[in-house]
Design goal:
about 210 residues, alpha+beta, NADH Oxidase, globular
Length: about 210
């Protein structure tokens, strides 16, 4: 595929087959991530490949998305925050995100499916699970593998005329919706819960999580 086709046909995949990774695939994904742009060219990312089910289940059990448990493979993306003095825009998140986009496009180009996951345990829990030092911040988790079914095209929510302006902001201001405000409060409470309580309410929480491709 050419780059435009790769970009336009990539989808978030949340259901996977048990097909094993072919040799060299992981290295190609990480190589693509390593060529992403980063703030001041710091290239401060690190990547932890996760293929152990017990470890993925541990992330899930501590409040992570069910997709982490469902996908046979995952990559936890970290960035060294000591390389940045920009607390206003937290450019380590932007740099890590650029690497993730390269990863997802490469995953799709190689015939696999992936999903960008930010529904994770508290950062301190992840640090404990993976022995991550304090200067490295978890950015996100990329769940991936071979999709269990063909992935259909999904239309964009907006056309270009609805999202593009020149020289000034032209759209009406939006107020925070009550439902979103409620979700933020619930998520904050959920993050503060001990792992045993999260485990108890996990079946209920999973009913509100996307389980389809998009």
């Amino acid at each position: 595929m050419n780059l435009e086709d790769i970009i336009k046909t990539r989808r978030s995949v949340r259901k996977f087959s048990d097909r094993r990774l072919e040799p060299g695939v992981l290295e190609k994904i990480i190589a693509a991530a390593n060529f992403a742009p980063s703030h001041c060219n710091t290239q401060g990312w690190k990547f932890i490949f996760v293929d152990d089910y017990d470890l993925r289940f541990k992330i899930f059990n501590n409040g992570g998305s069910h997709v982490i448990k469902a996908a046979p493979y995952g990559i936890l993306v970290l960035y060294d925050t000591t390389l940045s003095d920009n607390l206003e825009y937290q450019d380590w998140i932007q740099s890590g995100s650029a690497a993730i986009q390269n990863m997802l496009l490469t995953i799709h180009d190689l015939g696999l499916g992936g999903c960008w996951v930010c529904h994770l345990p508290r950062k301190q829990n992840l640090r404990n699970i993976f022995d991550i030092p304090a200067n490295y911040s978890p950015v996100a988790y990329v769940a991936f593998g071979y999709s269990d079914q063909p992935v259909a095209a999904v239309l964009r929510k907006n056309n270009l005329t609805e999202i593009l302006a020149t020289n000034k902001f032209i759209w009406p201001a939006e107020k925070l919706k009550p439902a979103t405000r409620c979700k933020r409060i619930v998520r904050k409470i959920y993050f503060l819960m001990p792992a045993p309580f999260k485990k108890m309410i996990q079946p209920l929480a999973n009913k509100f999580v996307k389980k389809f491709h998009n």
